[in-house]
Amino acid sequence: MTSDEERFLRRAIELAAEAREGGDPPFGSLLVGPDGAVLVEERNTTVTGGDITAHPELKLARWAARELSPDAAAATSMYTSCQPCGMCAGAIERSFLGRVVFALSGEQLAGLKPPATAAGPLLEGPALYAEARVPVEGYYV
């Protein structure tokens, strides 16, 4: 890891601390262009913003999808205080970001949190394939 990469990760950790100080979960991220310039920074605002999807990684992915071409997005690097969750990872993939560098892994984060008390949702499916495929078929050609 280069000294610049360490500096960017440290900034993501600072943003996480700012989020916590502001009453939100402690997560922060920044998006860096190929020239090393910081394009945008975000922190978690799920509590203060009343939006359970307001993760910094998702906000940056949405920004990149709106503001950058796919080629420009592919040349960026996201630096984030923690490994992106599944929701954010999906958005990052769809926004064509080129690289994600994180400080804490999801496993390390889990070790710092109390055990989950609720089970996840029950997922059922797939079902009605013949009908569900009609609006999708041919779209991704």
TrEMBL record:
MF terms in GO: catalytic activity
InterPro entries: CMP_dCMP_dom, Cytidine_deaminase-like
Domain of life: Bacteria
Pfam families: dCMP_cyt_deam_1
Ranges of residues in domain CMP/dCMP-type deaminase: 3-114
SUPFAM superfamilies linked to this entry: Cytidine deaminase-like (SSF53927)
Name the UniProt record assigns to this protein: Nucleoside deaminase
Taxon lineage: Bacteria, Bacillati, Actinomycetota, Actinomycetes, Streptosporangiales
